[in-house]
């Protein structure tokens, strides 16, 4: 399973690098590259790798602990709710970004992946 997880990380980083490279080339072509620090692109790749490792390991753990599809679907519900939490609260965070709720939710690892 570790090989599959590392393969997912490799595919994700390759796709992200291709899209970021194309976007950076377009920004460079139209003289917007000075507004995009290259360290931001590198941090994006680091956080992309960590997000794929986090969610991939959760789904692999579910797949390893289940024997049939019905059991897998019922266990996946909890992980999918964790993934959907940022979508449930993003309007409140946009309305009041300096509130204690926004600060608290930003410390929750599943809410910081987007």
Question: What's the tally of helices?
Answer: 4
Share of helical residues:
over 70%
The succession of helices and strands, N to C, reads HHHH
Radius of gyration: 18 Å
Number-wise, the strands total: 0
Measured between the Cα atoms of the first and last residue, the distance is 25 Å
3D structure, described in words:
By secondary structure, the chain is mostly helical. It is built from 4 helices and no strands. It has helices at 2-29, 38-65, 69-95, 100-106. Helix 1 (2-29) runs antiparallel to helix 2 (38-65) and helix 2 runs antiparallel to helix 3 (69-95). The chain is flat. The chain starts with a helix and ends in an 8-residue tail after the last helix. The mean pLDDT is 87.
């Amino acid at each position: 399973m570790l090989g599959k997880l590392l393969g997912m990380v490799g595919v994700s980083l390759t796709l992200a690098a291709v899209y970021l490279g194309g976007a950076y080339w377009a920004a460079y072509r139209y003289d917007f590259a000075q507004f995009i620090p290259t360290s931001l692109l590198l941090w994006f790749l680091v956080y992309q790798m960590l997000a794929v490792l986090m969610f991939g390991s959760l789904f692999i753990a579910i797949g390893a602990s289940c024997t049939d599809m019905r059991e897998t679907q019922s266990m996946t519900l909890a992980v999918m709710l964790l993934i959907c939490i940022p979508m449930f609260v993003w309007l409140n965070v946009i309305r009041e970004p300096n509130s204690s709720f926004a600060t608290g939710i930003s410390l929750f690892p599943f809410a910081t992946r987007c």
